[in-house]
Amino acid sequence: MPEPQRQSPPDSQPESHDESQHESPHTGHGFGRLLVAVYGLLALAATGRSILQITEYFDRAPVPYILSAVAAVIYLVATIGLARGDRASVRLATIALSVELVGVLVVGTVSALRPQAFPDKTVWSHFGQGYGFVPLLLPLVGLWWIRRTARASAASAAEVAQSAD
User: Could you tell me where the beta strands, DSSP code E, fall in 79-155?
Assistant: First the structure.
């Protein structure tokens, strides 16, 4: 025989606040899902390319191939940070995206000025030309998205606080 469900008296019911209706903006929701998917795809592509380059052609250009592996790790960190969306993860993603942007700009510049140092395309060489310049644009979009969701989150928190008064 099923046990009857107990109901609390009406005065002990939890009050419904607007907080449950206000979902805080999250880096992994909405457009962020697309961003997470693109970063995940880049993480896989960069990992595959760097493993191949390091195992097969390392003696040709070790530094660029190691940089491809570093890029793969940065893409993985960015993917996880954006997907999780909590404060610490977003900070980590912000650092990863900033390092990525600096890396693409520095490696892109060096590879343009000294193409002999990059005999094969790497993720960041020539500003990510081998990947359709996505490595150059993606950190800018990612940093914009983090900033946008942070602003929306702050506005949402202020709205919730104001409605609680």
Answer: none
Sign of CA dihedral 68, 69, 71, 72: positive
How many Å apart are CA 45 and CA 108, to the nearest integer? 18
The two three-digit tokens of residue 100, written as one number: 């990525």
* pTM score of the predicted model: 0.77
- As a whole number of angstroms, the distance between CA 53 and CA 142 comes to 27
Question: How many residues are recorded in the chain?
Answer: 165
Residue 39 backbone phi and psi in degrees, to 5: -65, -40
Q: CA distances (Å), 109 to each of 28, 104, 114, 115, 156, in order?
A: 32, 8, 8, 10, 41
Assigned token pair, 2: 């099923």
Q: Give the whole-angstrom CA distance, residue 160 versus residue 21.
A: 9
Cα–Cα distance measured from residue 108 to residue 9, given in angstroms and rounded to the nearest whole number:
67
Q: What would the pLDDT profile of 100-135 be if each residue is shown by its tens digit?
A: 999 999 999 999 999 998 888 889 999 999 889 999
